[in-house]
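Q: Give me a protein?
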Amino acid sequence: MAVDTTTSQPTATAAGGDTPARGPRRTAGTPGRLRLALGKHWYAWTLVAPVVIVIAVLVGYPLVQGLYLSTTDANDKNSEKQIGDFLHIPASYKNVGLSNYTDILFGAHTNFWARLGWTVTWTVSCVAVSFVIGLTLAIMLNRKVRGRSVYRTLLILPWAVPAFVSTFSWRFIMNNDRGFLNHALQALGLPTFDWLNDPTMAQISVVMVNVWLAFPFVMVAVLGGLQSIPGELYEAAEMDGANAWQQFWNITLPALRPISSTVILLSTIWTFNMFPVIFLLTNGGPGDETQLLVTAAYQKAFTGLRQFGESSAWGVLILLILVVFAVVYRRSLRKQGEVW
C-alpha cells in the first residue's frame, strides 16, 4: 500500500478533540496591503494625489524649514542675500541646538509666559462668549419666526466679510475722538472710554471684535445640528411633563455634543492664532497688553533686527501647545463616549 508522504508530518489537535487546531492566520505585510489598496482603489489615490502634493509643498516644506531654523541663530545679518545681479552673500548662521527654546522659556528677559497667559485668557474668553451667543441665536433661528431667512443672512454677514475689513471698521468705530461708539455713548449721557489705548479696555475691545467675527460660525454649525434632532423627542418630553429648560438640558445639549465639541476645538485653534484682529486693531498695544504668542513671533521675525531662528522657535512652541491641547481634548471626549 502506498503511503502519502504529504501527511507524514504530525498534526496538532485541539485540546479535548480530534479536530486539528488551526495555526496562526497569515496576514499580508504592510507592503502587500499597500499594493492591494493601490491596485483596488487606484482612482481614489489618483484624485487625492494632487491635494497631497499641494499640502506637502505649502504645509510640509515650511514646517520642516521652520523646525530647522528654530535650531539656528539665523537673523537678518547672517542670512543669505542677493544684492543686484552680481553680489551674492551666502548664509553664515550656525546651528545652536535648543538654545532658542531655553532662552524663550527660561531666559532672564523672556516674556513668553506673560504672553501665554494672555493668549489663554483671550482664547477662553472669545470661545466661551462666541459659543454662548452662537448657541442662543441658533436656538432662536431654529424656531418658525417671521423673516427667519433674512435674520440668518444678516447674522452670517460678520463671518462673510473678510476679517481685515471688519477689523478696520471696528478700529474706526472705537476711535477715541471720532469713533461712532463714543459719540453714541455721549448722546446717551453715558461715560466714554479710550477703547484702544487703555490696557484693560484694549483687551476687552479685541475680545469684542473677535467674538463679532466668530459667533456666526458657531451659529451655523449648531443650527445644522439642531435641525437634525428628531422632533419626536421633544413631543415625548412634553407628554412626560418636561419644561423647556429640561428639554434643553436633557435633549438638545446631548444631541449637540458631537458638533459642539468639533466647533470648540476648531474655534480654539483659530482664536489661539488669530493674528489679524490683534495686529490690525491694537498692534499688540498699548505696550504689550494685547500681544499674543503669534503676534510676538511675528515681531521677532519682521521688526528690528529680524530674528528668524528665534521666531521659528516661537512658532514651534505654539504648534506644540495646540497639538497637546488637541490630543488631551480628544482623549477627554473619548472617555465621555464621544466618537469623532
Summary: Residues 1-28 have pLDDT under 50 and may be disordered.
